[in-house]
Design brief:
Number of domains: 4
Shape: globular
Oligomer: single chain
Number of helices: 17
Radius of gyration: 24 Å
Distance between the termini: 44 Å
Strand order of the largest sheet: 10-11-12-13-14-15
Length: 550
């Protein structure tokens, strides 16, 4: 089924590219009427290809669900305008976030975009703009035309992957909303057999996560993953992914995005165990700089059941909170499944604590969030250690600081991120956020400080979110603290001619409660003179966009 879905998507993509390229060839990129006519005609062809892909993806999910005893009939919406800041799924239909945003493209100044700028017709105007821009910079027509065709192909591929993801999620969401539905979530399913170079490590790592049925699975260029529903009796991850995450990290030589993205796996017939994933190509830095940035090759030992529990428990707890916020009953299959898994993981962790530390156990290492025992907090919320003052102009989470990392460990963890930090020593909370952010499959580029003028800068560029410029905050989980940090950052930046409009609030291992979610959603309404465009909260490894009320 999955092979058929991907094959249909790629055939439709090839068909669309061929037709759209033929429409583009005679166009004068400096003639506005010709460009507009091309964009409209190309959008019509792309809409047909998207609908073909969506229909195949929906049919594949319906067939898979039928084998699980779930009967559902869904016609995918297959919207022409498929791009947006985010997407959620309700009653088997996609809801796109079309709010205005500020995007920074590579080598360009930030651009403010509204809903009209990301329609399919408008997006198909971009190749003409590329030609005009490159030629204005001295490029030949041949080079500019090649860049435009490359951009056209990328636009088609992006829309086709979204069409597939939307249709799959609409069907799974509709099935989960049926009375008595056994659907408890969904997973990313990897397909090493469909890629000439094998499945990338990022997809394998992401396949370990259980998603709620309202979410859209992240994607990347040339991704050949599909989605599959999960029930209490059937979890496709148990059967289709035989590579342990720790084995992945060992084969990759590290846990950075650079290691994972370029480590490739292929499917091999074991003879006794059936199809398994084996490393086909390990990570090799493209340059000396990349080798230095990606860090060493030290990896963690085999992942124990306790470590699995420690990694999965926060994700299941966060998912459970989301399900309750969505109004699901306590006796619904999704809620009951999450509660059962949470109880199982907690029992496993409790048993480990009672047995005491052993070699290779959680207390013998210091990797936060996976194998570190927590020091009990005082009433003030501190660990009892004296706080260390963070570097000037930067705030550690909630006023705390990097008090239990040695400088050597901090430097090693920063290097292992595999990102360019422009000589800046990141704080612990920044490093831990980047680790979690990359583990979710996202990509970022750290922004260098303005050392010449001393003006404030945002923290990073969210590369897989239309190069959105983002400011990171790591406060305590209190609305007043979150509000003050966002408000002050906006005001101080504006006073020096700098815009800070998009924020991620990282709560670490603290839970984003329903009350706090509602409070932060009212930030713009309560601060009309210092509003922001978009806001996300990272809580226990889960990144959630907040619906800001105006």
């Amino acid at each position: 089924m999955s092979e058929g879905v991907i094959a249909t998507r790629e055939r439709a993509s090839t068909w669309a590219k061929r037709l759209i390229r033929s429409l583009w060839t005679p166009v004068d990129p400096y003639d506005g009427d010709q460009v507009a006519e091309f964009a409209t005609a190309a959008a019509d062809r792309l809409a047909t290809a998207q609908k073909t892909t969506a229909t195949a993806a929906a049919a594949g999910q319906i067939q898979l669900l039928s084998t699980m005893g779930v009967r559902v009939s869904v016609r995918p919406t297959s919207p022409l305008d498929i791009r947006g800041a985010g997407a959620t799924f309700t009653d088997g239909r996609v809801e796109l976030d079309r709010s205005a945003t500020r995007v920074r493209y590579r080598g360009q100044d930030p651009v403010d975009l509204d809903a009209s700028d990301i329609t399919t017709v408008e997006v198909l105007n971009r190749p003409a703009r590329i030609v005009r821009y490159l030629e204005s910079q001295g490029a030949t027509r041949e080079l500019a035309a090649a860049a435009a065709l490359e951009r056209l192909d990328a636009l088609v591929d992006g829309n086709m992957m979204l069409a597939q993801r939307f249709a799959e999620s609409e069907v799974i969401n509709a099935a989960a909303n049926l009375d008595g539905s056994p659907i408890v979530g969904m997973r990313r399913i990897i397909h090493p057999e469909l890629s000439r170079t094998g499945t990338c490590g990022l997809c394998i790592a992401a396949s370990d996560r259980l998603y709620t049925v309202r979410e859209l699975l992240p994607m990347h260029a040339n991704c050949k993953c599909t989605s599959a529903p999960v029930t209490e009796e059937f979890d496709p991850a148990d059967e289709l992914n035989a590579v342990d995450l720790r084995q992945l990290y060992r084969d990759a030589g590290g846990t950075s995005r650079a290691h994972l993205k370029r480590t490739r796996y292929k499917e091999d017939e074991h003879g006794e165990l059936g199809p398994t994933l084996v490393p086909q190509r390990k990570y090799k830095p493209r340059s000396k700089g990349a080798k230095k940035a990606s860090g060493g090759t030290a990896v963690l030992a085999e992942e124990s059941k306790v470590e699995v529990a420690r990694r999965q428990l926060p994700l299941f707890e966060a998912n459970l909170a989301k399900l309750r916020e969505q109004g699901l009953d306590e006796d619904s299959s999704q809620v009951k499944y999450h509660k059962q898994q949470i109880a199982r993981y907690r029992e496993r962790l409790a048993s480990d604590q009672n047995s005491g530390p052993t070699i290779g156990s959680a207390t013998s290492r210091t990797r936060k969030g996976m194998d570190e025992t927590h020091t009990p907090e005082t009433e003030a919320g501190s660990t009892g250690r004296p706080p260390t003052k963070p570097p000037t102009g930067r705030t550690a989470p909630g006023g705390a600081a990097d008090d239990n990392w040695s400088e050597n460990e901090r430097a090693q963890r920063q290097t292992a991120l595999g990102i360019e930090t422009h000589g800046e020593d990141l704080l612990r909370h920044e490093i831990e956020f980047v680790e979690r952010f990359l583990a979710l499959g996202h990509q970022l580029e750290w922004i260098a400080r303005d050392r010449e003028t001393g003006k404030p800068t945002n923290d990073f560029i969210w590369l897989d979110n239309d190069s959105l410029i983002v400011e990171l905050k790591s406060p305590k989980p209190r609305y007043s603290t979150i509000r003050n940090q966002i408000h002050d950052a906006v005001v101080r930046a504006r006073a020096q001619g700098v815009a800070k409009q998009n924020f991620i609030v990282d709560l670490g291992d603290k839970l984003l409660t329903a009350k706090l979610r509602n409070q932060v959603s009212l930030y713009n309404r309560r601060n009309p003179d210092n509003t922001i465009d978009r806001l996300w909260v990272m809580s226990r490894g889960v990144l959630e966009q907040i619906d800001l009320q105006q």
